[in-house]
Amino acid sequence: MTISSSPLILSHFTVTTAAGCGNQENLDALKNGSTGLRKNNFLDAELDTWIGRVEGIEEQNLPNDLTNYQCRNNQLAYLALQQDDFSLAINNAKQNYGAHRVGIFLGTSTSGILSTELIYQTELFQSTGILPGSSHFREQHNSFSVAEFVRNLYQLKGPAQVVSTACSSSAKVFASAARYIELGLCDAAIVGGVDSLCLTTLYGFNSLELVAPDICRPADKNRNGLSIGEGAAFILLEKAERQPDQQSPVYLRGYGESSDAYHMSSPHPEGRGAFQAMQQAIERSEINSSDIDYVNLHGTATPVNDQMEDKALAQVFSLPVACSSTKGWTGHTLGAAGGVEAIYSTLCIQHNFMPQSLNTLTPDPTFTQPILEKTLSSSVHTVASNSFGFGGNNCCLILGDNIC
Amino acid sequence: MLTAYLKSVGITAPGIKSWSEARTALQCPDQYILSPVDKKLETLLPANEHRRATRVTQLALSAAQQTGTQEELNQCLQIFSSCNGDLTTFNQISLALAMDGRPVSPTRFHNSVHNAPSGYWSIATQSQTASTSITAYTDSLTASLLEAIVQLNASDNKQHRDCLLVCYDEVPPQAFDSQFNATEEFACALTLSQNSNNALAKLEISVGDGSKALSTLSSDILEQLRLSNPQAIILPVLNVIANSEDKTNLYSETITLPYFEQGMNIIIRPLKHD
User: Fold this and answer.
1) What's the gap in Å between the CA of A121 and the closest CA on chain B?
2) Separation of alpha carbons A121 and A119, rounded Å
3) What DSSP string runs through A316-372?
4) With A380 labelled, which of A217, B14, B110, B173 sits at a CA distance of 20 to 30 A?
5) ipTM above 0.85?
């Protein structure tokens, strides 16, 4: 078998977060420094915290033949898919390559479990203890739901899977898709992630004392936890040679994946897994760390995460590198974060800027790397984007506007 | 067509605690008794982690650790696959969320992620190798088998010649009775390699065109086992290997497993080493 390793291009993409619906609104928010976070007003969740809630999810009605998939996560996916002519891009890819040749690789951590959580709150469930037959577990709750929804929405027949490795999920899908394309199992791939607010994550992160009562302040010396967000990111990944006329092309240069092998919900304090993921991504990109202009941090604003990430960066970068977390705009979108931040990194390259660390009042003086206190206009060619998840699951993506 | 060598099999299933017991059951189905998986499962987790780990993690790890020594497994790429993840933990959390004050347990919360078994495995084996956790609903087994073989064959993999694939599903809690039918627990782990040394079989995998009938088992009791859990669809593959002892190295058989509309064709070439 011959293996053709050809550069992959992010030929089309769209992002929807609390900071905006579609690429332009997100780009404007990034440049203007306007956060999408707000005081928690999600359902009856009485938690003193801030959330990154996307406007307009509840009004989304899925197409008639797919109403069984109607849940917050798929409504968010559907809202996002209607932006930036992304549906047109999928349909063009389907026409060019064939329905069997377009793969789907999406990340999520909680899928549409909110639907089931809410059934548990009903009197009917509390008296019977059984989910009603009309619950649509497969179409809403199961982690594969969003990929199956997208597959059915566009009538695609290519390989499909959901990666669910908590907060690294939608970074890792790029690696999976790249390998499937390289080995000829598909010609193009819809990659990305969708995660939506639910009670499990709000109360779960709260039980771990990882949720901040204040707005999240990544890399701040007084940071005290995350703001939970929701978001959807979709990217069409295909071989660059198939899109020779692409404007401002951005390529997937490399990726690195590792495990901490340390703790289920706390990262290794010296960032050993984070270091490995970044190191591997740089090697795979065939660049030097000094070629990286900007690092989009995982930067959740928990004391432990941000510190270990800085320690890992210090091991990777012999010279300081400009860093910021964009979670001050979106909150932590969990399984969607990798995809959302890959798109933010792409926007930085295409629009020549590096965003500030929003909400950061005083950068942690113990950090070795410079945290961007103001948004900088500057040419950006190569960006590393970090995503680290529970279970010590790490992924780093490197995106760039040149191939060599 | 993508190829890999199957090096070893671990299995924790009803009435089956090892590949050796699975082989016996597949060779002599008349003697096989479909009895529930033991309540107590051994794992190589430290005692405190073993206690914190949920049943589905213990199930996955009990199969995974049968496939090799810790040293051998430490360097494997890792793929974990489950149709439903940990619905037992979801059920416990959701019951807490329906109570006053919503007292969610932090340990339950971190156990609720789909990649909990993968996280516990990396802690147990101190393996920092890349690990992924995937699902494709009831096609999770074949999707993850494809992912494993893709990872082994991709040019980005210069370091790792072996891959550990762990496929598992629990019996969902009663609340899900109307939604998903899995009557038995089942976990199966395969180590796959680019290297043929001491391999049990060579596997050649391709996505089908939907024209082939899905493989079944001729024994009623084994067929009952195959249908009892979404991961048990691996059994026709294991059946070919278990029953190849009198076959030559030229023998091969093609199995077709569910994979979306197309099905997945697996040509199995059992290997002899003596």
Assistant:
1) 5
2) 5
3) H-SS--EEE--HHHH-B-GGGHHHHHHHHHHHHHHHTEE---TT-SSB-TT-SSPB-
4) A217
5) yes
Q: What is the pLDDT of residues B57-68, one digit of tens each?
A: 999 999 999 999
In three-state secondary structure terms, B59 is: helix
Domain span at residue B42 reads: 7-199
Q: Number of folded domains in chain B? A: 1
B106: which chain A residues are within 8 Å (Cβ-Cβ)? Answer: 204, 207-208, 265
What's the domain range around A384?
252-400
Q: Find, among B246, B250, B216, the residue nearest to B233 by Cα.
A: B216
What does the pLDDT look like over A42-59, one tens digit per residue?
A: 999 999 999 999 999 999
The answer to whether B226 and B108 have CB atoms below 8 angstroms apart is no
Contact B189, B9 (CB under 8 A): yes
Q: What are phi and psi of A97, to 5 degrees?
A: -100, -25
Question: For chain A, first and last CA: distance in Å?
Answer: 26
Contact A163 B118 (CB under 8 A): no
Residue B154 to residue A349: CA distance in whole angstroms? 28
Does the residue B273 lie in any domain? no
* Per-residue pLDDT tens over the stretch B109-140: 999 999 999 999 999 999 999 999 999 999 99
